[in-house]
Amino acid sequence: MALDTFKIGDIVQLKSGGPIMTIHGEHMYGGAICQWFNKNEEIKTERFAEESLKAHIERTTTVKLI
């Protein structure tokens, strides 16, 4: 089963919130394998259904110099 919505390297977040994660791969039984760093800077890995993830869009601020 291939990833339908995301590709390896995409930045995502659970639709319900939580840490910003990176798509690391595809699980053999379906779903996306995601990695992220916890508050202790330890890397964590877990499988999530693609339907539970949303693309993370970084918000940038534009400063106009006068």
Structure description:
This protein has a five-stranded antiparallel beta sheet with strand order 4-3-2-1-5, with no helix packed on it. It has strands at residues 11-14, 17-26, 32-37, 43-48, 53-55. Helix content is 0%, strand content 44%. With 66 residues, the protein is mainly beta. The protein starts with 10 loop residues before the first strand and ends in an 11-residue tail after the last strand. The protein is globular.
Keywords:
66 residues, mainly beta, five-stranded antiparallel beta sheet
Short précis:
With 66 residues, the protein is mainly β. It contains no helices and 5 strands. Helices cover 0% and strands 44% of the residues.
Topology of this structure?
Blueprint: E1 11-14, E2 17-26, E3 32-37, E4 43-48, E5 53-55
Count of alpha and pi helical runs: 0
- The dominant shape is globular
Helix content: under 10%
The termini sit apart by: 53 Å
Low-confidence stretches: none
Fraction of residues in β-strands: 35-45%
Number of strands: 5
Overall pLDDT confidence: 91
Strand line-up in the sheet with most strands: 4-3-2-1-5
Helix-strand pattern:
EEEEE
How is the biggest beta sheet arranged? 5 strands, antiparallel
Task: Using the CA coordinates, give the radius of gyration.
Answer: 14 Å
SS-derived structural category: mainly beta
